[in-house]
Design brief:
homodimer; mainly alpha; Arc Repressor Mutant, subunit A; Four Helix Bundle (Hemerythrin (Met), subunit A); 2 domains; two-stranded antiparallel ribbon; 67% helix; elongated; DNA-binding; FadR family transcriptional regulator (chains A, B)
DNA sequence: ATATATCAGTTATCATACAACTTATGAAGG
DNA sequence: CCTTCATAAGTTGTATGATAACTGATATAT
């Protein structure tokens, strides 16, 4: 009996193949994982308000029946929803939809996802927003030791000279430092996030566009302008200098 | 051999209780889920570079043995790592560590997480960065229909009068529209994200601080200033107007 | 009335089996 | 020697059943 029930239920289910085929009718993008389907469905229910914050999700057993998948799949889906902070599960009680902003939530930026039309340029633009303002805040909040570190980074940068790798690192470090000067952990971390999103793009662009001679000096000038504005504590000027710097960089990288 | 190993492994396992006790020695925060332990361990290995991008994780079987947990737990852990974009799993092959910026990655902001000292103020500040620049971009890119919509939102806002709920909604809508005018999906979505992070805070603050009379008119004036700058296509002015507006709002909300 | 015990329902974990896929190895044929 | 194809071993994906741990409510005893 064990055997037959397994067999029959097995065949009653949508076979993985058919589901996969269905998905792959549109671009390959989605791996053929059943939990993805469940996630999308549940997300939809929640975002459309059909399940509303605070209310309980159907039990795993119910979900297996309504989706015709195994409990394994349901659990994986719920687990991922939970790690996104959309639900919390309480053992013995159930899974509950969290109210927005309760707990930790995640911001996703898909650079490859064909669903998304977000381009590297978009992200770079967002970076300009954040970083130019960060420079402004830095000008208001910089301490003495902060300035010393920034100055040191500037020197490292100019000392790098022809060494590309070294130059890039010093550059990154300079910007990272400015983010830290804001003393705002949200800004610091988001800056880090954007930078890491862009590393590949930047590296690629940098490799393609031959470095003009004198470029490093030029960049150094821009950096100095930013630095001086921060030293002077002039937020407006710091923002402007940073914006100019990043705009030029954007051009140089061919992101415009 | 199978049999004995089964039995013994069962008893050899850390019982859930003991694990839970261990965790709960520090604040309650962590639910006693084994997959969390696995996730933390793997994250650590990856971030410390012990597993390096591109390389393969140990197979699920190996992991079950080294962690002494069931495959279910391992799979949940991996599934969540995958949904965070830290790894990709290829059926029949293995689970591979993604290189940073490959695929989609997530930015998390924990408002409650005791590990994080991110405050609502930090987030609001980040919002100011993004939104003031968004206003600038909006001024450069607004189309005709865009302006019409924006104007309509303004009218709705002033028409709301005393109705608080209505007023808030119109306000949110106004800002949302401006984000959309940038035509930058990264900015649009990040703005949405920040707004949703702040909803609770804003709602609370609004409830606490009694609304001064004449406040709505005052806010309306600020909105008009932003609107006019966008209409004029003056990016610098739009940025400034938005920044002023949000700074004032921040004060009013007691986030300063 | 208050506490306690019990029970049904739910999530968490374990174990096993099988399906589907990947990769390497090696045999067969050119 | 090289290519091609089959096979086998290893790996992830899914299904299923069983048990542990927890929750909430109901019933019971004091």
């Amino acid at each position: 009996m064990d055997d037959e029930s397994r067999q029959s239920s097995q065949s009653r289910l949508l076979s993985r193949r058919s589901v996969a085929a269905k998905i792959k009718s549109k671009p390959i993008v989605r791996p053929d994982r059943l939990s993805d389907l469940v996630i999308d469905a549940l997300r939809n229910d929640m975002e459309s308000g059909r399940i509303g914050p605070g209310s309980r999700l159907p039990s795993e057993k119910d979900l297996t029946e309504s989706f015709n998948v195994s409990r394994t799949v349901i659990r994986e889906a719920i687990s991922r929803l939970q790690s996104d902070g959309l639900v919390v599960s309480r053992q013995g009680s159930g899974v509950y939809v969290t109210s927005p902003s309760e707990g930790t939530r995640a911001f996703r930026l898909g650079l490859n996802d064909p669903h998304e039309k977000t381009t590297a340029r978009d992200i770079y633009e967002l970076r300009i927003c954040v970083e130019s303002d960060a420079a402004g805040l830095a000008a208001l909040r910089r301490g003495k030791t902060d300035l010393a570190m920034l100055e040191k980074a500037l020197k490292t940068l100019s000392a790098a000279g022809g060494d590309l790798e070294k130059g890039v690192n010093a550059d990154v470090q300079f910007h990272r430092l400015i983010a830290r000067l804001t003393k705002n952990s949200a800004i610091i971390r988001f800056h880090e996030f954007l930078a890491s999103m862009l590393t590949d793009t930047v590296r690629l662009a940098r490799a393609n566009s031959a470095m003009h001679e004198g470029l490093t000096e030029y960049v150094a000038t821009e950096h100095v302008a930013i630095f001086e504005a921060i030293v002077a504590g002039d937020a407006e000027k710091a923002r402007h200098a940073m914006r100019m710097h990043l705009n030029k960089a954007q051009e140089r990288l061919g992101l415009l």
